[in-house]
Please model this.
Amino acid sequence: MLPYSRQTIYPEDIDAVVRVLKSDWLTQGPAVHDFETALCQLTGARHAVAVANGTAALYLACRALDLSPADKGITSPMSFAASASCMVLAGAGVDFVDIEADTLCMDPGALRAYCEQKQPPAVVIPIDFAGISARLPEIWKLSRKFGFKVIEDAAHAIGSSYCYDGERFNCGQCAHSDLATFSFHPVKNITCAEGGAVTTNDPELAERVRHLANHGVEKDASRFQTRIPGRIWPYEVQDISFNFRLSDLHAALGKSQLSRLEKFKAKRAGLARIYSERLSALEQAGLLRLPVLPESCDPCLHLFVIRTGPETKITRQELFERLMEKGIRCQVHYWPIHLHPLFRKKYGFKEDDFPVAEEAASHCLSIPLFPQMSKEDAIFVADTLTEILKE
Ligand SMILES: Cc1ncc(COP(=O)(O)O)c(C=O)c1O
Model:
């Protein structure tokens, strides 16, 4: 069975993890520091804090902004639930604005309208959907006007960049955001098995994320809030939080994978080209829609999301099942967050609240895309799709 995505592990990755296993440190040793340094070099952000997963990264970024129950955060409905639940877990309310029909990223026009008509949010979390950068410069401009913070959810986008005003910026560089977050789950562009990171250019935010990722513990004696003569325990707890640390084993895997990101990116782009070429006739016939890659973006494509078209004679569900019968396992990215039971019950969201996202969600299908796929695999997927959709 060909999955929609999976990790690509090299012998060097295994060696890197084994080296850590044989060392003195299994957690929070030199490998975590090295991985963070490599993330800064790659993204261009001044600070990187490696954490347990992408959800923890989003939660910590929200906590670092000290959100209160009076605050509201906004994200895109076209994402994984973590992009919204992080705000709730950090103590704020949550709302959404709709997406652009072509890129499936947050629509800055909808965000502007929201800010003009309602109380502006405290934080906005745009998603670099499928590896395509959200319209970060436009959202950043709105943040200056309406006074909100921006957390770029770059879970899909390590290795992606975008052009703005003649300059190139990396996803996660935080040129147009306060903080950015990554996920290194096995289906993503690189993996730590489980892992994530927060990047920022603000040293205070970085320090706050690091502090909250480690139980809210302070180890620097100069910052202790209590003076206890003769104290021999070297820390004090100053905030309520969790242990969201990344281990050295996971960090070693992540750093080793990072060294192959460019190769993975080229492989993903080559497979996407095969899909685009072989499926363009179907698109012209209205039998499917191909992803739209804006010229300003140089994506490290995480997903290849097709959509059924106006002339498609079978349902998305039938297409999914027919592909499964042929050994091709697809996935839906995403069922909109606001239509999950929690968000309906707790916040009263319902159908038609975000029609562009709902329309895309009911037609989309992520077809296989990962570096270990061969050219022949991609041709097989494209030809199978053609055969099914042309019937
Ligand atoms: C856009 C987005 N944000 C956040 C996450 C959460 O990442 P993790 O699975 O590493 O917790 C995911 C994971 O699927 C995601 O796709």
Notes: The first helix runs from residue 11 to 21.
